[in-house]
Write a structure and sequence with these properties.
482 residues; mainly alpha; binds benzoyl coenzyme A
């Protein structure tokens, strides 16, 4: 079978020969109606009948894997797509390093593996739920289409994890697949599993920050899981990463376009001081200090997704060969971390300082460090736009101790520079660092839909190029009458 091509004949497009696997095919077909019901209930509200210019994966070949066409979202062909198998692949790290990669679940690690797959799976529908109301306030048809593209692909990523559960984890896999459709983002009784996925995404600046910062956690975690000795997980994650890149593109360019519009408007109005917030807001654009506060919030919420700095779970997952480091295959060491240490930022006697810890226990910290480096690349590009307009302002990522709810810094209050504050100081200064109610109200006031082809809301610049090289006035979404 040609693994690059996708079989589109059945209900579930796939490149895993589902046609020859009746048990799994039946299980997925049984799960399908519940998924569609979930999508209709919890997916983008108000646009289910609209025709959206979406890309669909038709191959897993790195060159030309997608095709673009108008689709009604509930009719999107969500499928099961794995990157090609590497013949003779070996487990790249941990105690089993050098043994043949597992094609079946290794019995002794079943529970640990299932937990990783379920947590990954849970984030995908969660993000769709968080974003479900945004369509109504889209700043353009271009952005509306990008939102929906992200949403349908998160849906596909749920399919990717559900396939692994149904194929490799028997009855409990089936139960977990059901439970993934039952939990709801933000629900007090049945919340999603990780903190950031229970927060609201109330406006488009939040959406772009989420896709920049939180989807990037997705990238880091998928890169770590793509190294897994369990080959089907590795192959699944490798293909998911190709889709994930677009989500971060949407986030990075979304924030860039907002910054650009703000800077242009400031220049046109002759305002050079970024702290003249009221004057800037009167121009119908988002002031730079508020953009900084949103970045502070989304960055800090996302850092929590890396878990505790020192983690036995992470050590076990690595030692067992299930979850590697970021791009493990490009690292030059023993891939077992015997006797190696890693500096971990900790709270020692009330002070934040580095302490060498066994590298195996510090893997969450290490992945988080790699994440921060990756985040800073795009932040640098945002700052370039501001500098080009001659405005004295720089977006900066806050200190990793700022506004944390998981790990070392949970019990302290730190400012964005990492200085420890008393509770009273924190309460007084919180609005300097995180969006206040007034900031939120202002942003909300800007969220007026702009649904005319080629038009954009006042607070965001048009993109440099269209999706699939379409012209500026292309009708990315043909909105169905309600
Ligand atoms: N919230 O040993 P620790 C994405 C729990 S995003 C709540 O440090 P570990 C996407 C933890 O479960 C990527 N609970 O944990 C992005 C544990 O509980 P138990 C998603 C938390 O396992 C945008 C206990 O605290 N994928 O794809 O080392 C849109 C001890 O913690 C949290 C993954 O995350 C939290 N934030 O690290 C769409 C990959 N953090 O088991 C999609 C799979 C920790 O003792 N997951 N806890 O009861 C993992 O690798 C790890 O489970 C974690 C946590 C990194 C999440």
């Amino acid at each position: 079978m040609n693994i690059a091509a996708v079989d589109y004949d059945g209900l579930i497009p796939n490149n895993v020969a589902l046609g020859h696997d009746p048990r799994v095919k039946r299980a997925l077909e049984k799960w399908h109606p519940g998924y569609i019901n979930w999508w209709k209930d919890m997916g983008p509200e108000g646009f289910q009948d609209s025709l959206v210019y979406l890309r669909t994966a038709v191959s897993v070949d790195p060159k030309g894997w997608a095709k673009f066409d108008y689709v009604r979202m509930p009719e999107y062909r969500w499928g099961v797509l794995l990157a090609p198998q590497h013949e003779g692949r070996k487990i790249p790290f941990g105690v089993h390093k050098g043994e043949a990669a597992w094609q079946e679940v290794p019995g002794e690690y079943r529970a640990m593996l299932r937990r990783l797959v379920v947590i990954q799976g849970d984030t995908e529908p969660a993000s769709v739920e968080q974003q479900r109301y945004l369509g109504k306030t889209a700043p353009s048809l271009y952005d509306l289409r990008n939102l929906f593209q992200v949403n349908v692909e998160e849906g596909r990523h749920l399919w990717a994890m559900v396939y692994l559960l149904q194929k490799y984890f028997g009855t409990d896999g089936r139960e977990e697949a059901e439970a993934l459709l039952q939990r709801r983002s933000g629900d007090p009784d049945t919340p999603r599993m990780l903190g950031a996925f229970n927060e609201k995404t109330p406006d488009w600046l939040s959406f772009f920050m989420f896709t920049y910062f939180t989807d990037r956690d997705g990238k880091m975690q998928l890169e770590a899981l793509a190294q897994s000795g369990f080959d089907p997980l590795s192959r699944t994650c490798r293909f998911m990463l190709t889709e994930e890149a677009h989500h971060m593109f949407v986030g990075e360019t979304g924030v860039t376009r907002i910054i650009q519009r703000t800077c242009e408007a400031m220049k046109e109005a002759g305002i050079s001081d970024p702290n003249e917030i009221d004057k800037v807001r009167k121009l119908g654009v988002i002031d730079l200090p508020t953009i900084q506060k949103k970045a502070n919030m989304h960055f800090s919420l996302t850092l929590d997704l890396f878990g505790n700095e020192i983690s036995t779970n992470a050590a076990n997952a690595f030692h067992s060969g299930l979850k590697g480091r970021y791009r493990e295959d490009r690292l030059k060491d023993d891939h077992q971390l015997d006797g190696i240490t890693y500096p971990v930022l900790r709270l020692i006697d009330g002070k934040i300082q580095n302490e060498d810890s066994p590298a195996l226990s510090a893997l969450n910290m290490r992945l988080r460090d790699d994440y921060v480096v990756d985040c800073n690349v795009g932040v640098g590009r945002w700052n370039k736009v501001i500098a080009e307009h001659g405005i004295p302002f720089e977006i900066k990522l806050p200190h990793v101790a700022f506004h944390r709810h998981i790990g070392e810094f949970t019990n302290i209050k730190a400012d964005v520079g990492g200085n420890v504050l008393s509770d009273a100081e924190w309460a007084k200064r919180r609005g300097e660092f995180l969006p206040s109610d007034g900031d939120k109200d202002f942003i909300e006031s800007l969220m007026q839909p702009q649904m005319e082809p080629g038009k954009f809301a006042s607070w965001i610049a048009p993109p440099r190029v269209g999706i699939d090289n379409k012209p500026g006035d292309f009708e990315y979404v043909k909105i169905a009458d309600a």
